What does this fold into?
Amino acid sequence: MPVAETPLDILVIATHPDDAEIGVGGTIIRAVAGGKRVGILDLTNGEPTPHGTPERRAQETAAASKALGLTWRKNLGLPNRSVRDTLEARRQLAGVLRTTRPQIVFSPYWDDSHPDHVAASRLCEDARFWAKLSRSDLPGEPYWPPKMFYYWSIHLRIHPKPAFVVDISDALDQKMEAIRAYASQFLEGRPQVFPSALDDIRDRARYWGWTIGTAYAEPFGSREEIGLKSLDPLFP
Ligand SMILES: [Zn+2]
It folds into this structure.
């Protein structure tokens, strides 16, 4: 894979197609509206699921990408349900980081009941480290993504304290449209009585919006402190 002529501003790494939409969808839409180049790397195709097929999931992913306004999206082809932080997977992911060269990487949160999500989170951190190695046979040039944050698209019903929360009030409808593109996951075979899976996603966004005094929002974690160049972002 050649080095992108224009690097991505933001890369979201998703264990399964639909994880990025659930955890970062509104923030992606806001960033795209602000002129940022945003990409998603899905690690697996997410199949099998009760109502999906690989072909159908790929079509749904394409529709969701359009709703988000993505610049770039690829699938790393790791085995669903069996994601591991192997040296080969680390090599592949480090290669993507070196060729897309994002300023900000959003990774799956490190604590979850889904083993794929936990392994993917570890894989992201290890690939970030490997991406900067010199004198390696990795594609592209050595690169250290300056910022890595974590999103919550998890099965464990926990709510760790976020490092920051992004207002997505203007993007909520578009986010839900992107998620509804995955009909095999959210519409078919799911009871559409309140609270549905879609209700849960929207209402969690409402809850995080309440925490910052807006309609809807998405929370993010960080292992490192976040520095500001000025107080401007803190003014209401
Ligand atoms: Zn997932």
In short: The pocket of zinc ion is lined by residues 15-16, 19, 117, 153 (CB under 6 Å). Helices lie at 19-33, 54-68, 87-100, 115-131, 172-180, 183-186, 197-212.
